[in-house]
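note to self — DONT lose this again. spent like an hour looking for the file last time. sequence + predicted structure for the chain T wanted, 162 res
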Amino acid sequence: MTVKSFDKDLENLTLTLTAEFPAPVDKVWQLWADPRRLERWWGPPSYPTTFVEYDLTPGGDARYFMTGPEGDKHHGYWRISTVEPPAGLEFTEGFTHADGTPDDAMPSMNVRVRLVAREGGTRMEMRSQFDSRAQMEQMFAMGVEEGLTTAVGQMDALLTEL
């Protein structure tokens, strides 16, 4: 299994996913940097993702939607703050309405991704920071642990194509 741990820290309002891949950092980075590759793993297998905008530069935005098994669409965004290829990136992630405007009733989080070379491959750490415990609990009620774990679990197969 790619995902090694999924830790939630209610005191510090963070959740951290750690995964390891038998591939070099630059290949893992390609799965973040190329929106067509990102679409193939960002989201659980039963909720494929389509990126309609993708500007991976500081200050840039990414907009996407996931399509559920019943054809329902769930829209989201990233507001990119830091990009350090191939070591990582940081962004604010949240939900939007279909027209792209932020959905303030839904949680948002700051996400930091770090890719570090290790013997035999790459260690990836994704740390999400929430503004409140209520936001964090709302994400867990929505199934973030299972969703993110299964999403990241799709990366191994994609890395064999590079």
